[in-house]
Write a structure and sequence with these properties.
The chain is an alpha/beta fold. It has three domains: 160 residues, N6 adenine-specific DNA methyltransferase, N-terminal domain (Ferritin), CATH 1.20.1260; 278 residues, Vaccinia Virus protein VP39 (Rossmann fold, 3-Layer(aba) Sandwich), CATH 3.40.50; 39 residues, no CATH class. The chain is built from 16 helices and eleven strands. The chain has a nine-stranded mixed beta sheet with strand order 3-2-1-4-5-7-6-8-11. The protein has a two-stranded antiparallel ribbon with strand order 9-10. A hairpin with a 5-residue loop joins β9 and β10. α1 packs antiparallel against α6, α1 packs across α7 and α2 runs parallel beside α10. It is globular, with a radius of gyration of 27 Å.
Length: 498
């Protein structure tokens, strides 16, 4: 039996009816919490059946779940999905789910403070809530795709849908998957410590795990560390990673990375991040003597270079960084940013800069670039510049996505550069020596280096083309004068002279 086609969309459409007038940011916890509850219960059922088959009488012993591997949790009787599903059409279904969440947290220290428990609220339609419970109960699966893969994929899909609905607020928890994939393919996190200091809902980690699996790596060879300042987002991330089988150290609570670094001694091999763009009011004036500002004190009015230096301070001796920054960081000279950028470049940490196309984010139209830094550069004394502003395809009126072909091309270009096999391509990419960057005032805008692509010769002789174009221009001028005369005449008729 195959999974229902487009189950993610089917669930979203059905569950969205439940939302009613509830704000997307509030409803997000309701739906994603249900997905997570179904995941926990199903994993428990799987382990329960194994223990029943062993006939040792341990199926209700908590220790035999905690020791079964990551993702297995003991689920008390009142929190098991079959119990919840049996009461899906009662007026008490909301309270049943809240009680289930409390019971799971009571019996599982790792999940304490993570699960939402707001299903009994009056504004949540209990009939529709029961219908969504039924939908989860009746998910069909194939042998080729596990239930956990489908639930994980559904969790991701719903995150993206909420991001689209929340608009600017979505930046707190969601980075579009195509942007994350471009970063991950660029830094290639095969093994070691992966860190995201502003991890949102965990998309960087999910895509890193996917990269490892697709390249026949072992996810157990990676340790994941993250942090986020928003308590709701921190909970979303904990659920997202658990449902994906990714064990992560996100700290014991949500905390501000600049003022309460929960991983102060960490030296990471791979750092991936999409920090808030041009963040002001980040409290920089209280951190002027901070050890992280090796290259200069970042301005209190813009945290871009604070994020960058924070990540550099966490790099291992062979560490790599892949991060998103607003394009202003490529050329800004204000408040000492130009000097900080210059020192980072002179320290030969910058490996590649990619100028990205517009409209990639739900949250902003600010143009962005991807920065790749490395302490193990294969091409020392050089920086790869890529102009990808014409890439991507519009998937809606407002949103663009990088295609699979785009991501593959960018990753291959970076690989060719590292392997000393790159040929500069005018208008697209160039490997520039640091001396050239210095001559350009340490500005990192790719367009300065890659130039403009040569236009394909259309075969029309120059003289003939100029005669044709000037003729067309003359006709346009003539039409313009005629239109101007008509406008003057009509304005004059109502008593206005121009």
């Amino acid at each position: 039996m195959t999974p229902q086609l487009g189950f993610e969309k089917q669930l979203w459409d059905a569950a969205n009816v439940l939302r009613g007038n509830m704000d997307a940011a509030e409803y997000k916890q309701v739906l994603l919490g249900l997905i997570f509850l179904k995941y926990l219960s199903d994993r428990f059922d799987e382990r329960y059946e194994e223990l029943v088959a062993e006939a040792e009488g341990f199926e209700e012993d908590k220790d035999f779940y905690a020791g079964a591997g990551y993702g297995y949790f003991f689920i008390p009787v009142e929190a098991r999905w079959n119990v919840i599903a049996a009461r899906s059409h009662t007026a008490e279904i909301g309270q049943v789910i809240d009680d289930a969440m409390h019971a799971i947290e009571r019996d599982n220290e790792k999940l304490r403070g993570v699960l939402p428990s707001n299903y009994a609220r009056q504004e949540l339609d209990k009939r529709r809530l029961g219908e969504v419970v039924d939908l989860f109960t009746n998910i069909p699966f194939s042998d080729q795709e596990s239930e956990y893969d489908l639930l994980g994929r559904t969790y991701e899909y719903c995150l993206a849908q909420f991001a689209e609905q929340e608009g600017k607020k979505a930046g707190e928890f969601y980075t579009p998957a195509s942007v994350v994939r471009t970063l991950v393919e660029g830094i290639e996190p095969y093994q070691g410590r992966v860190y995201d200091p502003c991890c949102g809902s965990g998309g960087m980690f999910v895509q890193s795990a996917r990269f490892i699996r697709e390249h026949q790596g072992n996810i157990d060879n990676v340790s994941v560390f993250g942090q986020d300042s928003n308590p709701t987002t921190w909970k979303l991330c904990k659920m997202n990673l658990t449902i994906r089988g990714i064990e992560a150290d996100l700290g014991p609570y949500a905390a501000d990375t600049f003022h309460n670094d929960l991983h102060k001694t960490l030296k990471a091999d791979y750092i991936l991040a999409n920090p808030p763009f041009n963040l002001s009011g980040w409290g920089g004036e209280q951190l002027k003597d901070d050890y992280r500002w090796k290259y200069g004190i970042p301005p209190a009015g813009n945290a871009n270079f604070a994020w960058l230096q924070h990540m550099i301070s966490h790099m291992s001796v062979e560490g790599r960084i892949g991060m998103v920054l607003a394009n202003g960081s490529l050329s800004s000279q204000s408040s000492g940013e130009g000097e900080i950028r210059k020192k980072i470049i002179e320290d030969d940490l910058v490996e590649c800069i990619i100028a990205m196309p517009p409209q990639l984010f739900y949250t902003t139209q600010i143009p962005v670039s991807l920065w790749f830094l490395s302490k193990r550069k294969d091409r020392t004394g050089e920086i790869l510049f890529i102009d990808a502003r014409e890439m991507g395809t519009m998937v809606s009126r407002k949103l663009r996505e990088m295609t699979e072909a785009d991501i593959t091309r960018l990753a291959q270009t970076m690989s060719d550069f590292r392997n000393d096999e790159l040929e500069d391509e005018k208008g697209y990419c160039k490997a520039a020596a640091l001396e050239e960057v210095a001559k350009n005032g340490f500005i990192l805008t790719p367009g300065r280096y890659v130039g403009i692509a040569d236009q394909e010769d259309d075969g029309e002789p120059f003289d003939e083309k100029m005669k044709r174009l000037t003729g067309e221009l003359s006709e346009m001028f003539k039409e313009s004068h005629e239109l101007e005369g008509q406008i003057r005449e009509r304005l004059g008729a109502i008593g206005y002279d121009v």
